[in-house]
Specification:
299 residues; alpha/beta; Beta Polymerase, domain 2; Methane Monooxygenase Hydroxylase, Chain G, domain 1; seven-stranded mixed beta sheet
């Protein structure tokens, strides 16, 4: 199989399979390259998500890959035209996935022998590219849960929001990849043989597992967020309980103030010990209520 990267030959073969071609180049050179293959049609449409088309003699793939930090769900645009003996991959900028795949093609001891095998290698690199990020997100959620239990921080909203956005980006990515690979497994144009379909099914299962792992992370993060909300509710209830205790303590005193604040002639007002008695009763009420609430663990 002949391999060209930006028109530079990386591997050439003189065997009977010399007509097999793998071309990797920038997307701005796409039209010029595809003009040499009349059976390939150029697509000028920029789709909003990963997309797949099955034609009579080739398959067209359009990949939108999230960025490394998952802040941009459409960071990398990759197009692939896969025919029976040729594969053309076009990319924008210098995407890490294509870079990692090229290193694998150039440096691997067991190089792919056909364009289809190279395509399955690319799918494998694409599917496991965010695996490390997935594990980091899980570790961050676990650390967040531990900090929440130990009450090490006061504000978790920003961290939860960032993690939620990252998980959502991964979920959408794997969801579109899973739909694409299920569609590809139908093999409507008969381009893939039985062995190819077996390799494809293996990659489909891998994407499905990653998709469900992302869903599990989403549920895990939801539980942590609900725990944080429950913690806020508990703190709010503690404050309300404190106000309730204070109100309950001073409510009888307010009754006394209101009672003796009336502009009326009261018989006990002439008693010389009325004032000390009122003070003693007030102190007794406050002390008694404090002891009562303390025994019932209200504070």
């Amino acid at each position: 199989m002949n391999i060209y990267i930006d028109n530079n030959p990386v591997q050439t073969s003189k065997s009977k399979q010399q007509k097999e071609l793998l071309y990797i180049g920038r997307i701005e050179n796409r039209k010029k390259i595809l003009e040499q293959f009349s059976f390939l049609a150029e697509s000028n449409i920029e789709y909003e998500s990963t997309y797949f088309e099955s034609h009579k003699s080739f398959n067209y793939f359009y990949f939108l890959v999230p960025s490394e930090d998952l802040t941009d769900p459409k960071s990398e645009r990759i197009e692939i035209y896969l025919a029976n003996k040729t594969m053309h991959l076009f990319y924008e900028g210098k995407p890490p996935i294509v870079t990692a795949w090229i290193k694998l093609l150039v440096n691997a001891g067991d190089k792919p022998e056909s364009p289809k095998e190279a395509f399955f290698n690319f799918l494998n690199v694409l599917n496991i590219h965010h695996l490390a990020r997935l594990e980091k997100i899980e570790d961050k959620i676990t650390d967040l849960e531990d900090a929440l239990v130990n009450e090490e921080k006061e504000n978790y909203v920003d961290e939860i929001r960032v993690l939620r956005k990252q998980v959502l980006t991964l979920r959408r990515h794997y969801e579109s990849m899973f739909a694409l690979m299920e569609d590809l497994e139908e093999n409507r144009n008969g381009l893939l043989c039985e062995g190819d379909l077996h390799l494809l099914h293996f990659q489909t299962q891998k994407v499905e597992r990653l998709y469900h792992s992302t869903l599990n992370l989403r549920d895990y993060l939801t539980q942590v967020r609900e725990s944080y909300q429950a913690l806020l509710d508990i703190e709010s209830n503690k404050v309300m309980k404190l106000f309730t205790v204070i109100t309950s303590i001073f409510l009888p005193l307010s009754l006394l103030v209101g009672w003796y604040g009336m502009n009326l002639s009261m018989p006990e007002a002439a008693f010389r010990y009325t004032y000390p008695v009122v003070i003693a009763v007030s102190v007794g009420i406050v002390a008694g209520l404090i002891i009562y609430f303390k025994r019932n663990r209200w504070f």
